[in-house]
Specification:
It is built from no helices and 11 strands. With about 120 residues, it is mainly beta. The radius of gyration is 13 Å and the shape is globular.
Length: about 120
């Protein structure tokens, strides 16, 4: 089993930055893809970014391209989401996930964290 714990969320002003972390425990995730998803109040959970096991391929939702960067450190068993130029519409609970592929499809992920709140004030 893999346990995922997100951290780094908080309140930030429009244009600010945050760095989310996703620490894995239970087993190594070096062979897993990782993804970030978000869920705004009253809306469905949607894809944000993903990275394959090696880090050589990444995927981004159009809404965050050029502003967010996904990365990972397999030695630390941790994934990251650097979020720059934040907008109020980025406000959501952010979830990290791990699965065999590291793609935009939520059903492909086996393990999910509990989420961390990101609030962007205007």
């Amino acid at each position: 089993q893999v346990q995922l714990v997100e951290s780094g969320g908080g309140l930030v002003q429009t244009g600010g930055s945050l760095r989310l972390s996703c620490a894995a425990s239970g087993r190594s995730i070096s062979s897993y893809g990782m993804g970030w998803f978000r869920q705004a109040p009253g809306k469905e959970r949607v894809f944000v970014a993903a990275i394959i096991w090696s880090g050589s391929t990444t995927y981004y939702a159009d809404s965050v391209k050029g502003r967010f960067t996904i990365s990972r450190d397999n030695a630390k068993n941790t994934g990251y989401l650097q979020m720059n130029s934040l907008k109020p519409e980025d406000t959501a609970v952010y979830y990290c996930a791990a699965g065999p592929r590291g793609n935009p499809r939520a059903p492909d992920y086996n393990y999910w964290g509990q989420g961390t709140q990101v609030t962007v004030s205007s």
